[in-house]
Amino acid sequence: MKHIVIIGGGIAGIETASALTDAGHWVTVIEKEAQVGGKLNNWSYLFPDFTPVDKIKSVLQEKCSEKDFSILHQTEVSSIHRKNGKFNIEISGEHQLEADAVVVATGYELFDARRKEEYGYKIYDHVITSADLEQLLLPNGDLTVAAGENPKRIAFVHCVGSRDEKSGNHYCSKVCCITGVKQAIELRKRLPEAEIYCFYMDLRMYGKRFEELYREAQEKYDIEFIRGRLSEASEKIDKSLLIKAEDTLSGRPLKMNIDLLVLLVGMEAGKGTASAAASCGIGCEDSGFLKTADSFLKSNFSEQEGIFLAGSCTAPMSVNDTILHARSAAQEVNNWLLRR
Ligand SMILES: Cc1cc2nc3c(=O)[nH]c(=O)nc-3n(C[C@H](O)[C@H](O)[C@H](O)COP(=O)(O)OP(=O)(O)OC[C@H]3O[C@@H](n4cnc5c(N)ncnc54)[C@H](O)[C@@H]3O)c2cc1C
Ligand code: SF4
């Protein structure tokens, strides 16, 4: 029986572990947090069809309890060395594991919106990120703003920390446009009287049913999309916000008073992926995401033989794309082990 170590217990890591266990391998997942599931633990409903996250989480939990793979929680890899065709893996500076193959599934981290000072995140009370809003959209979430009232006018800003020279992230985070559409619809269901605006540079509805959901947002849920870039937000004495933007279709400057500003934050490779890459000796793209051996035919291979990649540590991706990428990673590992 071959032993495979997976670094990261998000949806990518658990899906890869489950598929490799089904293929008859012995699998160990190393997760730095106390629980598995990664970012999914923080979300409410999933685009494109508003599936409650708990449904996907319970499938993951079932896989963890029913399939015969082990999970080492609150554990990190210190170093990985190759010896006699095997990997010697030192974990949390203490124990050693021996593995035949390694899969890196360390996911992504959220862009820290404080880096865009002009939007006032963590300075003004009613500026929140899309990740914060996910918590407020849970059934017991409190959406009230000043004086316990529901917000009457809400604005979303797209591309916060993505496609942005200043933050150094030139790439598109791919899922934040559709996340904005999902969240705007959820807000409309909860706040039927509110005005809801989305300020965007371009809208990228790349996936199945995304474009339809965007149309629905406008036609059925009366959400207004304004092509424009927000230059700044400032707080007024009553804690409401004044935002300044340029409507890039009409070419006119625009000022608007709002009660809640939601920043659609992008995805970054983050420290967890950087530390796993350093311990394995694998490379990163300029964006910080892990480098695949080939974009078309080897998207699950790192440049080091025997070290494979799964999920959003390679590029921003949705849950659906992550599951598919994880399953193909398991297939590639299995094929590679059979060929040895
Ligand atoms: C605001 C927001 C809303 C979203 N909503 C949706 C949605 O509605 N529908 C949808 O399809 N997608 C959505 N997404 C995308 C979704 O979050 C990702 O597709 C998914 O989380 C990717 O899973 P992953 O396992 O690759 O990464 P992650 O979820 O990031 O999991 C990575 C795991 O690896 C662990 N880890 C990291 N580094 C190490 C290390 N060095 N050692 C050990 N463990 C480590 C982490 O603790 C974590 O458990 C959303 C994204 C954002 C930002
Ligand atoms: S998905 Fe949309 S919001 Fe996100 S970076 Fe790309 S264009 Fe901007």
CATH class of the largest domain: Alpha Beta
User: What is the helix/strand order?
Assistant: EHEEEHEEEEEEEHEHEHEEEEEHEH
What ligand species are in this complex? flavin-adenine dinucleotide, iron/sulfur cluster
Name the CATH homologous superfamily of the largest domain.
FAD/NAD(P)-binding domain
Strand content: 25-35%
How many angstroms separate the termini? Answer: 13 Å
The tally of beta strands, per DSSP, is: 19
Query: What number of domains?
Result: 2
Class from secondary-structure proportions: alpha/beta
Mean pLDDT: 95
Low-confidence stretches: none
Give the overall silhouette.
Answer: elongated
Would you mind describing this structure in some detail?
The protein has 340 residues and is α/β, with parallel strands linked by helices. It has two domains: 3-108 and 269-339, FAD/NAD(P)-binding domain (3-Layer(bba) Sandwich); 111-267, FAD/NAD(P)-binding domain, CATH 3.50.50.60. The protein has seven helices and 19 strands. It has helices spanning 11-22, 53-66, 130-136, 176-190, 210-219, 270-280, 319-339; strands spanning 3-7, 26-30, 45-46, 51-52, 70-72, 77-83, 86-91, 95-99, 101-104, 109-110, 127-129, 153-160, 195-200, 224-235, 241-247, 252-258, 260-265, 267-268, 307-309. The strands form five sheets. Strands 11-17-12-13-14-15-16 form a seven-stranded mixed beta sheet. Strand 12, helix 4 and strand 13 (195-200) form a beta-alpha-beta unit. Helix 4 packs parallel to helix 5 (210-219). The model has no long low-confidence stretch (mean pLDDT 95). The site of flavin-adenine dinucleotide has 41 residues, from helix 1, helix 3, helix 4, helix 6 and helix 7.
